[in-house]
């Protein structure tokens, strides 16, 4: 099966300033960009922030192709959102909404492209530790995030492969030919993952 990304760029080994930056600082940048999307009301500011993030992404050595790969899955959705908002609220508002979404995606991709997955999961564990007093399990939470990061690209890749196979047989308009194989493969993947976790004693809650 082909490898497929899903919205966020994969890690790119490097020694740039961003690669060496503390994980907490990168988390704060992503959080700030998320808050920015609720605060900023001028599309020009959003465009400037997006350009700055794009420059940082390219400066990290991740490359334009990887940046486009993170944004491309959103393109059809952003087009629909942009057209609808332009019709309802006008061009400037539509541009601001679309640009703010891109700011969040590129900021998150900047984090994942410059941080190894294990370091990200360790950071998640540290963030979740204060919630232990409420019964949360930081290790399990990080494990869930890790499984999600692996499962989403797998399912996306499965759908793309099934779609190409159905198209080759002239069945691209048949929902059953698309949905059923993806469903079966996803269930099989989930069972294999569950069995692997159970074999390591990670699949069941502690008494």
TrEMBL record:
Ranges annotated as spanning the membrane: 20-40, 47-64, 70-87, 99-121, 141-160
Q: Which Pfam families match?
A: CbiQ
Principal location class: membrane
The domain of life for this entry's organism is Bacteria
- Recorded topology in the membrane: Multi-pass membrane protein
Keywords on record: Membrane, Transmembrane, Transmembrane helix
User: Is Lyase among this UniProt entry's keywords?
Assistant: no
Give the matching InterPro entries: ABC/ECF_trnsptr_transmembrane
Q: Where in the cell is it found?
A: Membrane
Q: What is this protein called?
A: Biotin transport system permease protein
What organism is the protein native to? Answer: Pseudarthrobacter enclensis
């Amino acid at each position: 099966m082909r490898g497929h990304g899903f919205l966020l760029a994969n890690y790119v080994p490097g020694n740039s300033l961003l690669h060496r930056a503390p994980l907490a600082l990168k988390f704060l940048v992503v959080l700030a960009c998320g808050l920015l999307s609720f605060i900023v009301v001028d599309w020009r500011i959003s465009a400037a922030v997006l350009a700055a993030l794009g420059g940082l992404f390219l400066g990290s050595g991740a490359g334009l192709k990887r940046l486009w790969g993170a944004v491309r899955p959103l393109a059809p959705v952003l087009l629909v959102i942009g057209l609808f908002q332009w019709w309802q609220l006008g061009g400037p508002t539509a541009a601001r909404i679309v640009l703010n979404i891109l700011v969040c995606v590129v900021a998150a991709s900047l984090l994942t492209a410059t941080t190894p997955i294990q370091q990200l999961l360790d950071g998640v564990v540290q963030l979740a530790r204060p919630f232990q007093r409420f019964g949360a399990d930081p290790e399990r939470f990080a494990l869930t995030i890790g499984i999600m990061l692996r499962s989403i690209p797998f399912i996306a890749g499965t759908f793309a492969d099934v779609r190409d196979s159905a198209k080759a047989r002239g069945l691209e308009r048949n929902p059953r030919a698309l949905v059923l194989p993806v469903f079966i493969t996803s269930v099989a993947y989930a069972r294999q993952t569950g069995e692997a976790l159970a074999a390591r004693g990670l699949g069941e809650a502690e008494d």
